[in-house]
Amino acid sequence: MAGAEWNRYNTIFASPERHVIVRDFPTGPPKGDSVAANSATFSSLVVHAPALAPRLVAPADLVPDRLADAWPMTARVHAQGRDGTRWLLDFPVVHVNAREAPTPGFQVETGPVLVPEALVEPGATIFGGFALAYVFFNRLDRIDLAMLAPRGPGRVYGQFGRLNEVAVGLYRA
Length: 173
Prior knowledge:
The protein is mainly beta. The protein is 0% helix and 52% strand. The strands form three sheets. Strands 8, 9, 10, 11, 12 and 13 form a six-stranded antiparallel sheet that branches. The chain has a four-stranded antiparallel sheet with strand order 1-2-3-4, with no helix packed on it. The protein has a four-stranded antiparallel sheet with strand order 5-14-6-7, with no helix packed on it.
């Protein structure tokens, strides 16, 4: 899927060929999620994804006095699915915590992002082959996920997962 749009109760993500609309309401059960070919719904759809020349952010630059120079930031996660398919997830970084003492450290928190079904364990709600998840990581070889899943009368970001043996790069956009 090439693009995503978020509002209070709906998430829409689309590629040039198809789109998914996730309809969620905090006061009741999910209603009317849909996956469809664009030709059945839209007379045209343009996905604008400009090419960027990102610069790699070194882990040593993920400290409080250097973060402003690295902003805005994107993350790229290289992962392999259970079926052997290799995936590249590329998404904006919304929030970074950083410290210098007692030892340098960071934590990235961002989302929701699209995570391919082949990368997650069963339990998350899947839309058109993808889960919606908030992503958290404080190292470059593992990410934690809080995925949208059924809970009570509706859905919440309450299905937790972890992707191990990934390669994460942070880039200045």
